[in-house]
Specification:
Blueprint: H1 3-13, H2 26-44, E1 47-52, E2 58-63, H3 73-77, E3 81-83, H4 86-103, E4 116-121, E5 131-137, E6 140-148, E7 150-152, H5 153-169, H6 182-200, E8 207-209, E9 212-214, H7 228-236, H8 242-246, H9 250-254, H10 260-274, H11 278-288, H12 295-302, H13 310-326, H14 335-345, E10 347-352, E11 361-366, H15 367-373, H16 376-393, H17 399-418, E12 426-428, E13 431-433, H18 436-461, E14 471-473
Parallel strand pairs: 2-4, 4-6
Antiparallel strand pairs: 1-2, 3-7, 5-6, 5-14, 8-9, 10-11, 12-13
Helix pairs in contact: 4-5, 4-6, 5-6, 5-11, 6-10, 7-10, 10-11, 11-12, 14-16, 14-17, 15-18, 16-17, 17-18
C-alpha cells in the first residue's frame, strides 16, 4: 500500500475508542478489533477496484486477492452462498435500499447523509462475521462495512439492512449513535429475502465455460406470501414472546435455533407495519433511537397510541401469533400478485386483423365480449378454461380478492350450467320472446359488469401489503 493511502486510512480510523463497544462478547470484540487494526492495510485497503454506486452513497472497494472458497464445490452447488464483487455490489445495494425504504414508505430519492464504505476481502471461512463500524464525520456519521467476498444470503441482507437502518436513524444523532433492536433488523431482512431476493442479490458467476461466465440461478415464484417460510417454522415451534425477541441469544441470531427467532421477528415486524400508520410509527422509532440509551423507551414513545405499557405489547403480540398460526391456509399471493393474476384470468388474448391485408394484431378482450360474440363451441372452451383457472387461483388469492374471485367463478359456473339446455324460443301473442339462453347471456354480462366495478373500487381503496465518541460495533451475521 502506498504511504499516502496508509495515512488516509489511519486518519479515518483516528478517534476510535475501544470503550464504546456494547452488546457483544468482550473477548470476541477484542479479537475482531485486533484483527481489523493489524490487518486493515494488508488485506482490506489495497483494492483493485473502487466503485461508487448510482446515488453516490455507497463506495465499494475490492481486494486484489480472491477467496479460496469462491470456486469451491460447496459454494458452487449451494445457492444460499453468494460471491460479491464491486460492480455487481454497487447495483445490489441500491436495489436493497429501495426495497427496504418501501417497507417504511420512505421516498427512495430522499437525500442521504451518511456515507457507507463497503470493503470486500477474501473470505477466510464460510461463516466469517460481517463487521460494521460507525464513525462521526463532518456531516454526521459514516460507516464501514467489512464484507467477506463469499457469504450466505441471510448474512449479506442482514448486514446491509443493519447499516441502512443505522444511517437513517443517525441522520439527526448527536454524540451517541442509535442502537437498532435486533428484531427489527432480522424481521426486515427476512421480509426482503422472502419478497425480493432474486432482485436485490446479484452474485458473480460461479465458473467459466469456454471463456463464458456461467452462474447458477434458482428462480422462485414471486408474489407468494412472504411469510410462508415463517408459517412453516411457527407451525412446528412456538413463536417467541416479545421479551425473548428483545433479548436474543447468539444461537438465535445465527439461526441455530431452527429459524424460530428469525420467523418470529419477521411476523412481529410485518404485524407492526400492518397497524394503522405502522410505517410512520417505525420511522418515528428509528428517528427517536439516538435520544435514549435503550430502544425500549423509543419504542414506547413511537407506539404510545397503541401500547401504553410493555405488557400491552406482550398481550397484543400473543393475539397476533394465535391469529397468524390459525389462519394458515397454505401459501398465498401478495395483494399485488393477486390483482395481477385476477386481471390475467379475466382477459382473453386474441389476434385480429384490422383489414384483410393487415398483419394480425395482438389484443385482449373481456369475458363479456367472449360471451356476447363467440359461437357456443369456442365460447365454452374458453370459459371452461377460465373457470378452472379461477378455481385454482382462489386457494392462493390474498384475502381482499379471494371473495371476488369466487364470485367470478360462480357467475361463470352458473352461466355454463344454465346454457346447456336453454335454446328453446317461446312465442307469446305472435311475438317471439327471448329464449332462456339469451336471458342467461344478458344476466351473466350484467353480473360480470357489476363484478368488474367492484374490482375497480377494491383496487382503489385497499392499500398494498406494504458525535463525538465513535462506536466500534462488530455485528455477527
Amino acid at each position: 500500500m502506498s504511504g499516502l493511502l496508509h495515512r488516509l486510512i489511519v486518519r479515518w480510523l483516528n478517534g476510535f475508542n475501544s470503550s464504546a463497544v456494547s452488546r457483544f462478547n468482550a473477548a470476541a470484540i477484542v479479537l475482531c478489533a485486533t484483527v481489523f487494526f493489524t490487518n486493515a492495510s494488508a488485506q482490506f485497503f489495497a483494492p483493485e477496484q473502487n466503485v461508487r454506486s448510482l446515488s453516490g452513497q455507497f463506495i465499494i472497494t475490492g481486494s486484489s486477492e480472491n477467496s479460496p472458497f469462491a470456486n469451491s464445490p460447496v459454494v458452487a452447488t449451494n445457492a444460499d452462498y453468494i460471491r460479491l464483487e464491486p460492480a455487481l455490489l454497487a447495483v445490489s445495494v441500491e436495489r436493497l435500499k429501495k426495497s427496504l425504504w418501501e417497507q417504511f414508505a420512505i421516498n427512495p430519492s430522499m437525500p442521504w447523509r451518511g456515507q457507507i464504505f463497503l470493503a470486500l476481502h477474501p473470505a477466510r471461512a464460510l461463516d466469517e462475521d460481517v463487521v460494521i463500524i460507525s464513525k462521526p464525520s463532518a456531516g454526521g456519521w459514516d460507516y464501514l462495512v467489512r464484507l467477506p467476498d463469499v457469504l450466505t444470503r441471510t448474512r449479506y441482507v442482514r448486514a446491509l439492512t443493519s447499516v441502512l437502518l443505522l444511517e437513517f436513524a443517525n441522520r439527526q444523532a448527536g454524540a451517541r449513535p442509535a442502537e437498532i433492536p435486533d428484531w427489527l433488523t432480522d424481521g426486515l431482512a427476512q421480509q426482503l429475502l422472502a419478497a425480493d431476493s432474486s432482485e436485490i442479490i446479484l452474485s458473480s458467476p460461479a465458473k467459466t465455460v469456454n471463456g463464458l461466465p456461467m452462474g447458477r440461478l434458482d428462480l422462485t415464484e414471486r408474489g407468494l406470501d412472504p411469510l410462508a417460510d415463517a408459517r412453516r417454522v411457527l407451525k412446528i415451534f412456538p413463536a417467541l414472546t416479545f421479551e425473548r425477541l428483545s433479548w436474543p441469544t447468539g444461537a438465535q441470531l445465527s439461526g441455530a435455533d431452527g429459524g424460530v427467532y428469525r420467523a418470529s421477528a419477521q411476523v412481529f415486524v410485518a404485524r407492526l407495519l400492518a397497524l394503522k400508520n405502522g410505517p410512520a410509527k417505525l420511522r418515528a422509532l428509528l428517528q427517536t433511537l439516538p435520544r435514549y440509551y435503550n430502544w425500549q423507551t423509543a419504542f414506547q414513545i413511537a407506539f404510545q397510541e397503541k401500547f401504553s405499557r410493555a405488557l400491552d405489547v406482550e398481550k397484543w403480540w400473543a393475539l397476533q401469533v394465535v391469529d397468524f398460526v390459525s389462519r394458515d391456509h397454505g401459501p398465498r399471493w401478495t395483494l399485488a400478485a393477486s390483482r395481477e393474476k385476477l386481471d390475467q384470468i379475466l382477459s382473453v388474448p386474441v389476434e385480429m386483423r384490422l383489414s384483410s391485408n393487415a398483419l394480425p394484431v395482438h389484443a385482449e378482450i373481456s369475458l363479456q365480449t367472449v360471451i356476447r360474440n363467440f359461437d357456443s363451441d369456442r365460447q365454452a372452451a374458453i370459459l371452461q378454461t377460465k373457470l378452472r383457472d379461477l378455481e385454482l387461483a382462489g386457494f392462493q388469492m390474498a384475502s381482499p380478492l379471494a371473495v371476488l374471485t369466487d364470485a367470478y367463478r360462480r357467475a361463470l359456473e352458473k352461466y355454463l350450467g344454465e346454457n346447456q339446455n336453454t335454446t328453446r324460443t317461446y312465442v307469446v301473442n305472435k311475438h317471439p320472446q327471448p329464449n332462456l339462453a339469451q336471458i342467461n347471456t344478458r344476466d351473466t354480462i350484467k353480473k360480470l359488469n357489476q363484478l368488474d366495478a367492484r374490482r375497480r373500487t377494491l383496487e382503489a381503496t385497499v392499500k398494498p401489503d406494504k458525535s463525538a465518541q465513535p462506536s466500534l460495533t462488530p455485528i455477527k451475521f
